[in-house]
Amino acid sequence: MLFEYNAVDSNGIFRQGTVEAANVDAAIVTVQQRGYNVVSIDEIHKGFDLMNIEIDWFQKVSNKEVVILSRQIATLFQAQVSALRVFRLLSAEAENPQLQKILNGIAEELQAGSSISRAMQNYPEVFSQFYVSLVRSGEESGSLEKSFNYLADYLDRMYQVISKARNALIYPAFVIGTFITVMVLMLTLVIPRIAQILTDAGQELPIYTRIVIGLSSIMTNYIGFILVALAAGGVGYWRFRQTEVGARTIDEVKLSIPILGNLYKKLYLTRICDNLATMLASGISMVQALEVTAEVVDNLVFKEIIENTLVEVRGGRSFADAISEYPEIPGVLSQMAKVGEETGNLSSILQTLSVFYNREVNNAVDTVIGLIEPIMIVLLGLGVGTLLASVLMPIYNISNAI
Question: How far from chain centre, in Å, is Cα 292?
């Protein structure tokens, strides 16, 4: 967002200008970092221009772009390029207008004296708390290029895991969606006409034919109510998902679904182990690593486990002992973590576990794909076969009677 400010510098001279920031608080901080005392600051609202409409949804910064950006930043830091010049160069090269705007904003804040982590903190939709924490650790230790390399490697691993899981479900979802669309069209457009012919013939219809005609009648006569009910159900689910109880219930259900629940569990374990390993290897304390991991694990069940573990670690208990109490955490994880703590090599052990669970996720995805395809073929065959039999069998009987 763009803000216009009125301010006074240290010599009492009136200053006026604009600054780009994520919100008004960030804009005030940026102006103050320039050595000015803010008098007033207001967001500049652009007038409606049909030729220059920006649709943020289409300009969203993708995970892939963040991975590439992190790798580019690490490379430029290794080449001893200054931080300000790094973000100016990347901003000029960015193809995504939203990313270009964010990099420009970071560059402006760096020029005003802000640190990289503080500037990135103003853009949480792109740079997560985990990301900012690792950058801050690199600033404090003087090894920013190492932190950005860690981030690029970590984000690349997470991107590959999530992409494989998501892409594996695209084909089944497309086929099932197409099947449902065809069945709805058949029941609302084709079956009513055939049903009229079968009814006029006066013969007794099989039970499965009467069921299909009944479904067709319901969908034809009450399609408006069905659509409203589906819309209401969708809104109800969304609102339930926004509540704490609803979000936790849905996350618990995700973990309890046969086969898919195992996939989700291993995905979250991969994320937990990889997060902790990356942050510990960067010199971040276990307490801070657990705090950040709890925020980015993306499942309330595991978030609660991490938060409870954090409380016990703060109280002096070891990480391995604290996490071993929860049935969702495999025994091998807590046992290997204990070995890592005893040998002082916990980050390496957790990284090994992350690789192991990452491999397990890939195997689970392959298993799900292998099961979904035959099940989908059987269900589609039953659906199409039932629909055709319910129509063709009565027609065949009528033709024989004639």
Answer: 16
Output 131 or 397, whichever has higher pLDDT.
131
Alpha helices (runs of H) in 35-115, residue ranges in sequence order: 63-78, 83-93, 97-111
Query: What average pLDDT score do residues 105-133 get?
Result: 84
Residue with tokens 């608080």: 25
Least-confidence region, from 3-17, 103-117, 215-229, 252-266: 3-17
What does the pLDDT look like over 284-321, one tens digit per residue?
A: 888 888 888 887 788 889 989 999 999 999 998 899 99
Please state, in angstroms and rounded to a whole number, the distance separating the CA atoms of residues 43 and 64: 31
Inter-residue contact 114 to 123 (CB < 8 Å)? no
Structure tokens, 208: 């499965």
Q: Quote the tokens at residue 164.
A: 């494989």
Q: Which DSSP category does 143 fall into?
A: -
Backbone angles phi, psi at 399, to 5 degrees: -65, -35
Q: Residue 184 and residue 195: Cα distance in Å, rounded?
A: 15
> Where is 315: in which H helix or E strand?
none
- Spatial distance between the Cα atoms of 29 and 121, rounded to a whole number of angstroms: 12
The residues, ordered by sequence, that sit 6+ positions from 225 with a Cβ below 8 Å of its Cβ are none
Please, what's the b/e burial string for 285-303 (b: 16 or more CB within 10 A of its CB; e: otherwise)?
ebeebbbbbbebbebbbbb
Could you give the domains of the chain? 2-52 (3.10.20), 62-156 (1.20.81.30), 164-402 (1.20.81.30)
Count the Cβ atoms, other than its own, within 10 Å of residue 155: 22
Number of helices followed by number of strands (H, E) in the chain: 17, 3
Closest CA to 339 of 352, 328, 327: 352
Closest CA to 65 of 125, 105, 147, 117: 125
Q: How far apart are CA 351 and CA 305, in angstroms?
A: 20
pLDDT tens-digit readout, 175-195: 888 888 888 888 888 888 887
Percentage helix, strand, coil, to 5, in the chain? 75, 5, 20
